[in-house]
Amino acid sequence: MAKRREGLLNSLLSLHPAIIWVCGFLSVVLVSTDRVSERPLLAVGGFAIIFSTAILGTYRTFFTRRTVLAAAVCGLFFSGAHTWQNTAELKHLALSLLGGAGVASVLVLAALAYRETVGRGAHGTGRWIRLSLGTLLAYFLWEAVGTVWSENPGIALKLFTRELCVYVGVFFFATWSACSQPSLARLFAKGAGAAVTVVCVLMLIVASLHVIGALPSSLLNEEGWIRIGPAPAEWRLQFPFQHHNRAGFFGMCAAFLIPAFVLSYTQFSWRTATGSALVGVIISLLSLTRGAQLGVLVGGISTLAALTGVRTRITLIWATAVAFIFVAVVFLSPHQRGHWLESILVTPNRSVGTQTSLGNRLIIQSITLELISKKPLQGYGYGSPIFEKVTSAQYPGVAANIEGMSHPHNFWLEKVFAAGIPGALCFLAFTFSRLAALASVIRTLHRQQMLPTLGLLALLALWFGLEIGIQAYGLTNTVLR
Length: 481
Prior knowledge:
Layout: H1 2-13, H2 17-32, H3 38-56, H4 65-85, H5 90-117, H6 125-149, H7 153-180, H8 182-211, E1 226-228, E2 235-237, H9 244-263, H10 270-286, H11 290-307, H12 310-330, H13 334-345, H14 357-374, H15 384-394, H16 396-401, H17 411-448, H18 454-473
């Protein structure tokens, strides 16, 4: 029996390289189809987590019985707490059991990832990586407890099981697989990079067809390929997403991922890196998403700061900032410049609404702060629908007048609202330790001062810039999904 299980595990870990590459490619394609594939993708991810945990959890080489038993007890306690809240509905009982399985699976995968990272990383890098795993697990467990005391436990349980268990479980599984099977992880990453490049090329083609008037009018609507503003000249690229903010976020990420994908096949070149990064930059400009444009600027500066020596960092940072301002003044359309000018001239008014996206965001964020002050420690529970229900109940007049009350439009306010201050601090520690681990590796490569490490240094600098860019984008929108 043990030999059969070992053979099954080895066969899973030695899948054909082409299959791994295709999996990476399809993962990005499914994400780019936006809300159409969101639930099926989460369902597949959840099944993969529970299945992989069931396979790996039977091996003593990975776990001790005590680890598996502790995870199972936590899962049963979670299911029991939610079942005790509402034992009348069979659907709720099934969801409670599924949520318990998700909690147990995440705990097992967290132990697996932590064990694999022990002893890895020099100059404190390994400690930062393990700290990031521990703080993410602490955040996850706090959110799990928060679903029990939430004012809407049914909704919180459903979203926690369907989304957060999958996100956190995939992160732990990816950490373990990247450490134990680095060649397969690189194949998956290359497949994902190829998909990002293909999707971006298609986005630019759609934008070009609209400019020459070749797109049918049926694709020009609020959730179509191109979103038209009050004036025909005011348009925003959305394809293949259903909202321009998601398209802008994808373009911002592509500005760092495409150069990393290209440089993984070629020697490091400033021209190659810059030219391939422009694909994502152009998409972020065409989407008219200010958060994404700010993320590109901040992330680009962070990439240059991580890639260059101390003496040239300040010069490059100023040059990048000046170049961005030059592009904004010279190449952006009057509507795009007006979109940025709106950020300065906004005057929020709760009773009437400002009819500007930024003004509405400021109002929503002020309401979020008021709600947080009422429950600063425990929060209200995970999930955007909970935010909608709470704001509609406590601020019905504002919810009726203000557009975009689906979430706080600030990632960190969203974390505090959902998990309270303790949960948000755990996620902040997770974010900081993850960035510190990257910075530690980059600093080590700078100390080596060896030419063969330049390609790896460039990839890590792009990764660091992407992380910082996401943090900048998160000040105006949701980034977890």
